[in-house]
Amino acid sequence: MQPQIVLLKEGTDSSQGKPQLISNINACQSIVDAVRTTLGPRGMDKLIVVKNGKATISNDGATIMKLLDVVHPAAKTLVDIAKSQDAEVGDGTTSVVLLAGEFLKHIKPYVEEGVHPRVIIRSIRKCLQLCLEKINEISIKINKSNATEFRSLLEKCAATAMSSKLISQQRVFFSKMVVDAVLLLDELLPLNMIGIKKVQGGGLEDSMLVAGVAFKKTFSYAGFEMQPKVYKNCKIALLNIELELKAERDNAEVRVDNVKEYQQIVDAEWNILYGKLQKIHESGANVVLSKLPIGDVATQFFADRDMFCAGRVPEEDLKRTLKACGGAVMTTAHDLKDSVLGKCDLFEERQIGGERFNFFRGCPNAKTCTLILRGGAEQFLEETERSLHDAIMIVRRTIKSDAVVAGGGAIEMELSKMLRDYSRTIAGKEQLLISAIAKALEIIPRQLCDNAGFDATNILNKLRQKHAQGQCWYGVDINQEDISDNYALCVWEPAIIKINALTAATEAASLILSVDETIKNQTSGGDQQPQMGRGMGRPM
Prior knowledge:
It is a single chain. The chain is of the alpha+beta class. The chain folds into two domains: 12-141 and 405-518, GroEL-like equatorial domain (GROEL, domain 1); 217-249 and 259-365, GroEL (3-Layer(bba) Sandwich). 46% of the residues lie in helices and 17% in strands. The strands form six sheets. Strands 7, 8, 9, 10, 11, 12 and 13 form a seven-stranded mixed β-sheet that branches. It has a three-stranded antiparallel β-sheet with strand order 4-15-18. Helix 4 (93-112) runs parallel beside helix 16 (495-513). The relative contact order is 0.18. One of its GO terms (molecular function) is ATP-dependent protein folding chaperone. It is found in: Cytoplasm.
């Protein structure tokens, strides 16, 4: 009798070999099914309710993936590629997941027949290399010298990114706004210099772009309403100091033996405060912004001298103001010179919806801007913000990498045709695998048709015919329920989206194929909470 060898802790579940691979592929399929229907202009949205009852309505693949709490280890890789696509390019998150899932789906029969995963991975890598070469070869380079042409191109890319979102009806309006916003930034195009503020109420068309900074009116004290609300050519002091009487935090003990001495202590405290305020006034600043609270005494003091103040300004807003108006954030009231004060042409406070906003316009080195979004429901505003974020990322990417391809499944069909032709020139197992991947690439146009309710087989046949004749920009045309030259229709996307999507999808597929054993230890790990007792750990 052989003694039984116990190697792993009991309750450890280990599965290996082919069944393991197949089950991982199946798990990825079910993830893909979750986001499959959100692709394209006719894609549907998902409503996800998380633990605390907050509902999110979204069409953005990455957002949906983040909110789905995926526990399956292999399926998590798909969530990661969606996140990476979101961080790198901003749009195309649904496509990435779809492609990865579809690669696996078409390769699954070969795995079942016993083709070694390494052979498959090699073929996938080969395909990727061919695809990237093809994209670089046929993508259309942008001419940046002609400013108006370049601008209209950016608007088209932004409109394509928004066509599948909730705000697709207003995409002309928003694409102009997004391009304006991005072109206001400096060379590096930092994302955090575009502030997005959401105000409920009003229609989407009431949204506006402020070339400069706008932020919500902060918490204010008595005397605030007496301050002027509009300045021309104002100077702005940005502070990081409290302008109010401090309560003594340290338990300092002061012994006094008569009232006069006590009065001196109180006076000293007031004098410190008034000294600070006087210095700020003498510096010639008209607008005082501080990160820390500005108390009621200070508010009244400023109001008497026709100055405007706002305390407890959020840090990112203060930083944006600094970038736009110049100056520096001071931590002391001494030494306020002209060189550390910001400047702008027009400061005003305006009512927008139910909120009041402080606007700084006409800033000298304005490399920052603020989008103020209006709309009905809160979820709707959040989804609008996500859609605009995608569009902003796309415009940034297009400016940085200057090549575009046609969207609407056109580029995928072209790559699919190219791989098919290539697979006929080689012998061996790779031929089958490469043609399987060529078929997998057709998922994008197919899904676009399915989501719009067209006859996918019919349209794909027409597309294959066009591409075989060498017209490489033909894709699905949602509005005509037919195919058309998407380059002429201005359905454009930056080539980098496709490059990134294909790279991420092939990497995820290779990763999942190269796993052949999963060892899961149920009992270890901090999953179990101690049982709730009745206080003091007594049992119920």
